[in-house]
Amino acid sequence: MDWAALLQALQADPMSGWRRADGAALPALDPAARLLWCGIGGSLLAAETLLRAFASPEQAQRWASLASPEAQPLQLQAGDQPVFASKSGKTLELWTWISRLRTLPGWPPAPPVAITQDDANPLAALARAEGWPILPIPLDVGGRFSAFTPI
Fold first, then answer.
1. Is the pTM of this model over 0.85?
2. Which helix (H) or strand (E) is 122 found in, with range?
3. Per-residue pLDDT of the chain in tens (151 residues, 90 and over written 9)
């Protein structure tokens, strides 16, 4: 079975746990933009695994994983797409990156996307105040299992 057939079978099976992002308006993203993904654990690993499995070498070069806040040189480029992913919206590493990125010249290169529970947590509150799109993690999906949602 090829990958496309396997994914289609997974999506079709009601026991797979696959969930649709019902009601979530997916923002239009520039496919040529560098993706600045800020998240740790379940908010990073699934996306990074999909990237490693399916991305072309060119796409992989446009991925910047910002997981830990130690000193890492970073300069914003025009069109960079920041993504802030945290189920709770309270992750220290995420907030360290938000603070660092907001001090860089050229912030924001594009409107950031927030992936979080839409339950008035700090990340959701910031996204609403700034007018950023929110892709909600379902409230009934716990912690690391958010990796199994379309988010």
1. no
2. helix 122-130
3. 566 776 676 666 655 555 555 556 677 888 888 889 888 777 777 778 777 877 788 888 888 888 776 667 788 988 899 999 988 899 888 999 999 999 999 999 999 999 888 888 999 999 999 999 998 887 776 666 566 665 5
